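Per reviewer request, we include the raw input and output of the structure prediction for the construct analysed in the revised manuscript.
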Amino acid sequence: MGEVISTIDLGVIVLYFVVVVSLGLWVARQTSSSEDLFLGGRTLTWGIIGFSLFASNISSSTIIGLTGAAYSSGIVQSVYEWISGLPLIIASLIFVPLYLNAKITTIPEFLGQRFDRRSQVFFSVVTILTSILVETAGGLYAGAIVLKTFFPNIVIWQTTLALAFFAGIYTAFGGLKAVVYTDTLQAIVLILGSTVLTYTLFEQMDFSMDAVLAAAPEGHFSIYRPLGDSTLPWPGLFLGVPLLGFWYWSTNQYIVQRVLGAKDLKHARWGVLLGGFLKLIPLFIMVIPGAMAISLYQGIENPDMVYPTIVVDALPTGLVGLVLAGLISAIMSSVDSTLNSSSTLVVVDFIQPKNPNLTAKQILNYGRISTFVLMIIAAVWAPMIENFGGIWVYLQQMYTIFVPPIVVLFLVGVFYPRGNGQGAFMTLVLGTLLGIAFFVFQQLGWWTIHFTITAGIVVGISSLLFVIFSQTASAPPAEVVERFTYKKALINQENEGLPWYQNYLYWALLLFLCIVSLFLILN
């Protein structure tokens, strides 16, 4: 494998950095209020929202993790990608109108208004920790590993700090609008670069899908695995993955924040569904290349090195720079999103409530300072991830601890009007402790059930806790139930009378049929 890249490739990468940072700083000149910084002035349109959702989610850890998993254990991990459309459909139907009607800035605010301040603080702290220590640090580490493939002499911690710094500059000063504008550019570069790489590999196999299938071990292209499978057993496919997906796409601040910044409900819904359609793409341009590499690049022991190996060995001069720019795009888009969302949580959920008389300028300054502080924390923590094994495993293990009780508060909370602050808080505390206990038991070998199934079990137990503890306190006020729980009118809010091509329900149905088709094809 080559050790250096050409001057042309380096020029492509440098040009990318210049364009992205310049775009971010240009947007920063228009950022003059906290609403601009945190929600893009609530002016975001559906195309920007959809591409930003895609780019923010597809981090470098996703690309490396999915490609490596497809090489070592099969395409089953791709389910996490294309099944994302299901929670996005649910979000478009119910949660997007609930959030926009509440006029919230952070998702924990919704819990604060639906339940109480305790739940808001708990969820906000968990979100900040997972965003910085898992999402941001994971993306920085993966990016540093890839860059080390091309530049063997670089130091991991210095590289993570540099990557964080570049993303932090325009995020701190430009806020969400800078994030979504640069994300849109980064999504295009990422899709283009990954498509070129996939085409090149497919060309080496004479454009024969039969050759790809023949080279892979039996069952490599099936998503249905036996109960004892260590990658993703079939019960986890239907039980845990959709629940984890619901948390990520419907309640995660760093994802939902661009939806909160939509100019209206119609654009929010269209953007969410566009993101769902874009999430079908990684199966073909990130997962399939990993499966192709089985016959083209044998003997790669570390799954995290599959993608870098393919890039260096398969592509000619110039295209290496394009694909690497796409990979850096993935790093930057996930890092800028998590930094912006985490600083929003710090300011809106913690600083503003204690200092209600802050001026607009003070709020802006607090947001920018928070961004830089969180950026440094993520950059320092990122090198530690090497001790946790594969990036994909690291991410999934961390999520399983915190996600189940949060899923219950949203997914059950909006359909169970009797749910109250006491039930919500006790569910968060006991559900999280239960998740930690299962995690520890699994590490000790006392619990051998796959984490996706465990997540479903903890969600079930947490649902019972929510109902039981809600009975120990008074029912929430009628106005809270009216504003923050499900009612049929939400589904058609601002949707009646639109032509068919603007009716989000038709697009939601099409997306659902695409996902069902993949379940049937990948058997």
